[in-house]
Design brief:
single chain, alpha+beta, Immunoglobulin-like, Aminopeptidase, five-stranded antiparallel sheet, 37% helix
């Protein structure tokens, strides 16, 4: 017993030693900048102690303690040209990582530690650098150790009220007289009034952005980290799977849109497309192929040709949106080929004699009927194929929008018709998905996050799955063929135009096209009148 009692202090010391050894891991460092500030975020596996100090030369030093991997601490990536930071240097000693920011062009730094929240298991140490320059008061306070911010005169911080800050401004812009009373010249009064207005605006913004330690609700992160979706596991496909061609937009010499921080559309599109292929291949009924699997340029004509070569039943082109005049637009949208562009492309195929190479039944119907060279029949079959693929694409696009809308913002709640060369194949239902706006500050960050890219791919896949579970694959694969066979049979019936009806409505009701109705009835225009008799395909 005595031996055990003597050993207790040693056991306690050993336990304390072991507890101290288990520190946190610095998992990653990231940064970005907007018009107001530059933000640097350190992702941590656990809570750490830290200290921020503004050095005499204007640099800011951030010390991260209790790290198990301090010597492997990651470098801070460049936040882009719009940042006020010149450089960030890192060094390590023992379990401490020290980051030194050349912030001589920035305003006062503002650092804080965030606890895990909103499904994110990591702790985050955040350092903000205002794009406001360095004030004289800021220089005077150099060397002061800070926990939140080292604020210059007139800048809001967590230790002062708005009244205190306004008083500091008054002292800064006024001059004491011989009687001890302070007064302002007209020029000082004008400058003071402008500074007060700016102070109040900055203070209100800081109050909105500053995290509340008590409530833990006001997270300063502009964009929250996205949770990873379920992992895709590839399975063997059925004997005749439904083939989906995935087309990552742009590539190679064509970067597509480029965000303010240098995020390139071609890279985002490729990352999302690769994840989408993995998810599609996890369903045995489906199989995916890529039009490009690396950073290379593929012409628009070649993309449709690649899909046709793989006998694709569907083509999905993945892109990012961008609006140079606005940063507020955000969200996903899905585009389909417009009717006018479809008619122009169909006419080009007929003129070039390429109708026999079409897939999805159109080429076979033309070939087996022996009607190759029969302009009217070829046009009818081609128009019917194009109309059905566009109808199928619209329904599928709607399902994808609903699925993605349960995960993130949607820009347009319905598919958009547009004249796009990549969607021109009349025999393949084709969609172009704009996954978000690189011109939007928040979505620019999201679209560059690997987990957000995977979630986007997963939600697109779920939309495809949801639609095809409502529409069995064998029915979809035969729908265009049956419509084309009925069109080439030459059988028709007569209907009478009712009041309020028009040619496109009649065409849609009877599963045909306006061009075919005009051909059958020798019409020179789209105008019809009540009581008029028309031939329509059976």
């Amino acid at each position: 017993m005595r031996a055990l009692i003597k050993a207790l202090p040693l056991l306690a010391a050993a336990a304390l030693c072991c507890a101290q050894v288990q520190g946190a891991q610095l998992k990653s460092a990231r940064s970005f900048a907007n018009t107001d500030k530059t933000r640097v975020v350190f992702d941590l596996s656990g809570k750490i102690s830290w200290k921020g100090t503004t050095l005499k030369d204007g640099r800011f030093e951030l010390k991260l303690n209790d790290l198990d991997n301090a010597r492997k601490a990651p470098a801070v990536p460049s936040p882009g040209k719009s940042s006020c930071l010149k450089s960030v240097k890192a060094k390590a000693s023992g379990k401490q990582a020290v980051y030194t920011f050349d912030s001589s062009r920035c305003g006062a730094p503002h650092a804080f530690l965030l606890s895990p929240r909103d499904g994110n298991p990591d702790w985050r140490l955040v350092a903000d650098f205002a794009h406001s320059g360095v004030s004289e008061a800021g220089k005077a306070d150099s060397g002061k150790t800070v926990r939140r911010a080292d604020a210059p005169a007139g800048s809001p911080d967590d230790s002062q009220t708005l009244k205190d800050l306004e008083q500091r401004l008054f002292l800064q812009y006024s001059t004491p007289g011989s009687d001890g009373l302070r007064s302002m010249t007209p020029a000082q009064a004008t400058a003071y009034d402008k500074a007060v207005r700016q102070l109040r605006a900055d203070f209100a913004r800081e109050q909105d952005e500053t995290p509340s330690d008590a409530a833990g609700k006001n997270d300063q992160e502009t964009v929250h980290d996205t949770a990873a979706p379920p992992k895709a596991v590839e399975v063997a496909a059925v004997a005749r799977p439904f083939v989906i061609a995935i087309d990552p937009g742009h590539g190679g010499k064509d970067p597509g849109a480029i965000s303010r921080r240098g995020v390139r559309e071609k890279n985002v599109a490729l990352a999302i497309s690769k994840s989408l292929v993995q998810y599609i291949n996890s369903d045995p009924r489906l199989r995916a192929v890529l039009t490009r699997s690396s950073d290379r340029f593929v012409s628009l004509d070649a993309r449709s040709a690649i899909a046709r070569r793989h006998k694709a039943d569907l083509l999905i082109s993945v892109h990012c949106n961008s609006t140079p005049g606005s940063t507020t637009a955000r969200g996903l949208s899905v585009l389909l080929l417009s009717s006018n562009r479809a008619q122009r492309e169909n006419g080009k195929i007929l003129r070039d004699g390429g109708s026999g190479s079409l897939i999805g039944g159109a080429g076979r119907v033309i070939k087996e009927s022996g009607s190759s060279g029969n302009h009217y029949l070829e046009a009818t079959v081609l128009d019917m194929s194009s109309q059905n693929t566009r109808a199928e694409g619209y329904d599928l696009a709607s399902a994808i929008i609903r699925s993605v809308g349960r995960f993130t913002r949607v820009y347009k709640s319905r598919p958009i018709y547009a004249s796009l060369a990549v969607l021109k194949a009349p025999d393949i239902p084709s969609l172009l998905i704009e996954t978000g706006f690189l011109s939007n500050r928040s979505e620019e960050v999201q679209l560059n996050q690997p987990n957000y890219q995977k979630q986007m791919a997963y939600r697109i896949f779920k939309g495809i799955q949801d639609y095809y579970e409502q529409n069995p694959l064998k029915n979809l694969q035969s729908r265009r063929e049956s419509a084309q066979r009925s069109a080439q049979s030459g059988q028709y019936e007569t209907v009478k135009v009712k009041k309020g009806e028009y040619l496109s409505l009649i065409a849609a009701r009877h599963g045909t096209t306006v061009a075919e109705l005009k051909r059958l009835n020798g019409l020179k225009s789209d105008t019809v009148v009540p009581g008029q008799k028309l031939k329509v395909p059976k």
